[in-house]
């Protein structure tokens, strides 16, 4: 299972359940999503397994 966090700019951070928020993402305050996450994409699952977290900025999503 994973936990999903958002910051004030609506950036996305996905962390393994029970793990702390990584220092890489300490650039702002993160709020835990109240919704329960049942499934994540394969890209997110692989990133969480290899790095322990997955982070995506909203501006990266707007470019696509």
List keywords for this structure.
four-stranded antiparallel sheet; alpha+beta; 2 helices; 64 residues
Please explain how this structure is put together.
This protein is α+β, with helices and mostly antiparallel strands and 64 residues long. The protein has one domain (2-63). Helix content is 25%, strand content 25%. The protein is built from 2 helices and 4 strands; from the N terminus they run βββαβα. It has helices at residues 42-51, 58-63, and strands at residues 2-6, 12-16, 31-32, 53-56. The protein has a 4-stranded antiparallel beta sheet with strand order 3-1-2-4. Strand 1 and strand 2 (12-16) form a beta hairpin. The longest helix has 10 residues, at 42-51. The chain is globular, with a radius of gyration of 11 Å. The model has no long low-confidence stretch (mean pLDDT 84).
Describe this structure in a few short sentences:
This protein is α+β, with helices and mostly antiparallel strands.
